[in-house]
Design goal:
Layout (H helix, E strand, L loop, with lengths): L1 E2 L2 E2 L4 E2 L6 E2 L24 E6 L2 H10 L3 E4 L6 E6 L2 E7 L13 E4 L3 H10 L9 E2 L4 E7 L5 E7 L3
Parallel strand pairs: 5-8, 9-12
Antiparallel strand pairs: 1-2, 3-4, 6-7, 7-8, 10-11, 11-12
Amino acid sequence: MQTGSHQVRDVTEDSTNNGIQRRNNQLPISEPPLTEGLGHVERIDAITFASADMDASVVFYQALGFVISFGDISSPFVTLQSGNCFVNLWEVERSALPTRWWGRTIFHVDDVDLIYERAIAAGLSPGDKPKNAPWGERFFPIQDPSGHDLSFAKKLTS
């Protein structure tokens, strides 16, 4: 069941398990997550991707406007930065890369079309041209050299 942006799970009272009985293998949520005050997550600071080809991965992220802030192209661990966003690349053997889809990392940017044009000019291959999505963002998808799904997006204004 949804209430606003919080999911409420179906629970019943009983005398075991501190008065909570699980239904449908779901754990109960007693309080909505904190969004203000102490103890809440403010933002995701960095994401670390496994990279089977550090040279190609660094060049890829640099083509999208990131700059190296730690390490260099020959290092087994490199941090790249764009504004307050950090991408860490950790060199691994190709066999250590995910073999199936795990999700997508979304970077919010100030100009989706500019980032797209930068990618095209650098010879990268976005999955699609920028488009307006029904959830209120303009975005385009792209994969990095190790196959990580990325999206560059901006919230649409009315």
